[in-house]
Design goal:
Helix content: 40-55%
CATH superfamily: Aldolase class I
Structural class: alpha/beta
Shape: globular
Strand content: 15-25%
Number of domains: 1
Oligomer: single chain
Length: 359
């Protein structure tokens, strides 16, 4: 089938129906296999111009972190760890794309299987472990994307540390990645909240966080001077934190003048999925069970932060109503991941339409 014939067919058959037809096949495969099949297919479709037939959300610009976002619905990091599929993902109508998490050196991540669907709960458990090809390959992928080359939208680059880097030297990994990705990012996210890298969440503790943010802000200022361009830095935190810890994090964010906070990553709790197949697998749980957890963190952060810096809300968004709940809790923007896997591209438009209507 030629691309022009496919375009005509795609115009007649909405992507919601196309995904409804494709999902049973994808869900018949191992979760990681389906992931590795879908992204290259999306990339090829974008290269052929097929994705141009997809309906896009109406413009709804939001000014956050000094950046104008075309609409407030973004893609969360984790789906495209190497930045290899930016153009295909951008075609789905997101207001911004975040890729990574990338580490200084390539690493394979944890042994397979390491990703599990829990359809009863609209959830996924993953213990990928920052599998990626390293920051140099990541940057080459970003530079090769049409999205970056043509300055087509907002691109977040998410950075982490290598699994074998001692936690006391974690800041060195973040600083190296920050320097490498800085020239190519609309904003940079510092991921200290994945449960799949040993001791990583320790960096959310008050003393470790204070030291890390101090070094990051110093580096950010040096890089801004060098490149004559200020790139905002956001911090991504976990949902499994106590109220006191939220207060400490908020205080550190304000003192060090971070540009945003992303709430939240996946949870290590299993209360919502007890007894379900795969519920006992190690890793981070994402999807519907994280919805209330992340909203609670967003509300607590907003109470502490006020308008000092914006919150990007992520976790369990499966509808436009869910996206609005994140905004009502205190978020300025939202991000999707697991909901996209279960609902398909139509979710992007639904969320964007709901947030536009509510303004």
């Amino acid at each position: 089938m030629t691309s022009s014939r496919f375009l005509s067919y795609s115009t007649i058959v909405p992507d919601k129906l196309l995904y409804a037809l494709a999902r049973p096949l994808l869900f018949s495969l191992d979760a990681e296999t389906a992931h590795n099949l879908t992204l290259p297919s999306l990339k090829r479709a974008a290269a052929l111009g097929v994705t141009g037939a997809l309906a896009k959300p109406e413009p709804d610009p939001r000014r956050v972190m000094g950046i104008t976002f075309p609409n407030p619905v973004g893609l969360a990091a984790g789906l495209d760890k190497d930045g290899a599929y930016i153009d295909g993902l951008a075609a789905l109508g997101f207001g911004f794309i975040e890729v990574g998490t990338v580490t200084p050196r390539a690493q394979p991540g944890n042994p397979k299987p390491r990703m599990f669907r829990l359809p009863q709960a609209n959830a996924i458990i993953n213990r990928m472990g920052f599998n990626n090809g390293g920051v140099d390959a990541f940057v080459r992928n970003v530079q090769a994307s049409r999205f970056y080359r043509n300055n087509e939208g907002v691109l977040g680059l998410n950075i982490g540390k290598n699994a074998d880097t001692p936690i006391e030297r974690a800041a060195d990994d973040y600083l190296l990645c920050l320097e490498k990705v800085y020239p190519f990012a609309s904003y940079v996210t510092v991921n200290i909240s994945s449960p799949n890298t040993k001791n990583l969440r320790q960096l959310q503790d008050a003393s470790e966080l204070d030291a890390l943010l101090s070094r990051l802000k110093d580096a950010q200022q040096r890089l801004a001077d060098r490149h004559k361009r200020y790139v905002p830095v956001a911090l991504k935190i976990a949902p499994d934190i106590e109220v006191e810890q939220i207060g400490n994090i908020a205080d550190a964010l304000i003192r060090h003048k971070l540009d945003a906070v992303i709430a939240t990553n996946t949870t290590i709790t299993r209360n919502a999925v007890l007894g379900m197949p795969h519920a006992e697998e190690a890793g981070g749980l994402s999807g519907a069970p994280v919805f209330d957890l992340s909203n609670n963190v967003i509300r607590a952060l907003k109470a502490e932060l006020g308008d000092a810096l914006p919150i990007i809300g992520v976790g369990g968004i499966f509808s436009g109503t869910d996206a609005q709940a994140k905004i009502d809790a205190g978020a300025s923007l939202v991000q999707l991941y697991t909901g996209l896997i279960y609902r398909g591209p139509a979710l992007v438009r639904e969320c964007a339409a709901a947030l536009r209507k509510s303004r």
